[in-house]
Amino acid sequence: MSLPIVKISNLDKYFGRLHVLKNISLEVPERQVVCLIGRSGSGKSTLLRCVNFLEDPSHGAVEVDGVRVAAEVKGQERRQLIHDVRLKTGMVFQEFNLFPHMSVLENVIEGPVTVKGMDRNRAVELAELNLDSVGMLFKKDEYPMRLSGGQKQRVAIARALTMEPRVMLFDEPTSALDPELIGEVLSVMKKVANEGMTMIVVTHEMGFAREVADRVIVMSEGELIEDAAPDELFSQPKDPRTRALIDRYRTDEK
User: What are residue 115's phi and psi, to 5 degrees?
Assistant: First the structure.
């Protein structure tokens, strides 16, 4: 197994007195696809957002591709380290977060040009390559209001890829989509995984987790309660909470 590209050590997160993440340690090797599953409120999205510091961990440390940020580091050093981590992570949200006043192409090149200082011509070349990869190059001059939800999410994936991240983070990327649009986004995510991208995916799509993930991690009440290969986890869950979760999804699918 390759060295971990993401390493989370003894991470805690409090919102006031609410202990949302409880002493979480997790390693993700390069090129691995990890799916986080669990009931709503179990801490999945908070954990994901701690990886790129959209949420600030209360204790512990997060390391991404050799950049380590410990909770006790403060001030300018911390801000610089977080900036370095964010350059190495791409994030895809539930709600797309595209700029409505920018065309598809402008949305995709904004980050590389303004955050990374990439030459505009190079950014356009890379953006068009990634838009083509997700099947959205033909919409490069359209504005977000003229796109379906699935198209917006595919643009959001292309935007994240154009930052040339080492790790892609997906926070329930299909939960805001109509059922008939979910498949087109999942197929793009499968393609990204097959191309060797390290991915951490918070999802309720059990079929995707079973088919694409190398590991499935189950969360409950801020803790990691099970971590196994998909076939093992779905056929022989060890924790009764995992078994109840899987049974509930099977019931929902009927």
Answer: -90, -45
Please give the distance of CA 205 from its chain centroid, rounded to a whole number.
14
- Tally of CB atoms within 10 A around 122: 12
Query: By three-state DSSP, how is residue 230 classified?
Result: helix
Interatomic CA distance for residues 10 and 31, integer angstroms: 23
Hey, is 162 helix, strand or coil? helix
d(CA 77, CA 177): 39
- Angstrom CA distances, 168 to 20, 24, 93, 249, stand at 23, 20, 11, 25
Q: Return the SS3 of 247.
A: helix
Q: Give per-residue pLDDT as tens, 64-110.
A: 999 999 988 899 999 999 999 999 999 999 888 899 999 999 999 99
pTM: 0.93
Per DSSP, what are the bridge partners of residue 15?
18
